[in-house]
Amino acid sequence: MNNPLPAVEVGPQPLTEAAQERTAVADDGMHLRYTVEGGADGDTATLIAQGFYGIQSAYAGFRSALATPETAAVTVREQRTHSLADALFHVAEDLSERDGITNFRIVGHSLGGPAAAKAGELIIGRRPDLNIESLTIMASACITSAYNIKALTRLSTELLVSQLTANQRLSPTALREIVSYTLRPQIAVELFSVGHCNLLQMLDRLRRGHDVPTAAISFVADGLFPPKEAARKIGRAVNLFTVMKTPRQAGHLAPNVFPVETAHTYEETRLALAA
Question: Between 227 and which of 15, 111, 141, 218 could a Cys-Cys bridge form, CB atoms 3.0 to 4.6 Å apart?
């Protein structure tokens, strides 16, 4: 009788140019799925806090546009057990332990804006050995009074769907997931969980208290979070505020429907912060 072959534990695969599906384990044992591209030749990762409370498929193009051999780009799957900020923190820990990544750039779009800021605070508070190189929010919730988190919960489903999905450039998968998300009965609870509208205070703490360079980007054709009001509200909470001249059909969804152009604007803003 042949002896069985010894079990071989398959460890994490090294970072490559191709997108990899991975799983990070939270403190409570829950598994948090994420996707990472690039980063094989560096120690830096860009954590993307997606809008729509973490829908990943709509941000695949934006993630790919940011990934380089020196810098990994990361999105996390929509979470059911943890907040998006918690998930980003655990993903940062996982990348640090698996791949030796110690330097993080965080960018958040829409509802991902408050989550990005909260994730920055979590990383600084729990893992001071990790560096937050920059934090950028794009067309973020919790800045303008027109559509803050509380106002969003009062919008009818029809209005929310029409404003967020009226663009044929979105992939069928992304469109289906966004519509499905807006129809979920627990949407109001999830909207409140991303930051409780204290975004400006978090940005100010990160900038003043922890010397994290911060920036805000608005989209010129954004009907949900208009750039003029955002410019008035953001004040001194960030180091840099800029408006991206997006095509009118992009609306609020520039990272989803024009990912390469949005990634270029983000990189220009990030480099301006570092100058």
Answer: 218
The pLDDT tens digits for 156-175 are: 455 555 555 555 566 667 66
CB 156 within 8 A of CB 187: no
Residue 191 · residue 149 · CB < 8 Å? yes
- How far apart are alpha carbons 47 and 109 in whole angstroms? 11
Whole-number Å distance between alpha carbons of 176 and 247 = 23
End-to-end CA distance of the chain: 69
| DSSP code for 221 | T
- Between the CA of residue 139 and those of 107, 229, 230, 231, 264, what are the distances in Å? 11, 11, 8, 11, 16
Beta strands in the chain (DSSP E): 20-25, 31-37, 44-49, 71-76, 103-109, 131-138, 214-219, 240-244
- Pure H helices in 82-130: 84-99, 112-126
Sketch out the chain's domains with CATH numbers.
Answer: 20-274 (3.40.50.1820)
Cα-based distances in Å from 267 to 30, 168, 191, 261: 33, 26, 28, 10
Residue 82 β-bridge partners: none
Max mean pLDDT range (15-29, 151-165, 207-221): 207-221
Q: What pTM did the predictor assign?
A: 0.83
Asked if 217 and 269 count as a contact pair (C-beta separation under 8 A), the reply is yes
> Cβ distance 166 to 151 under 8 Å?
no
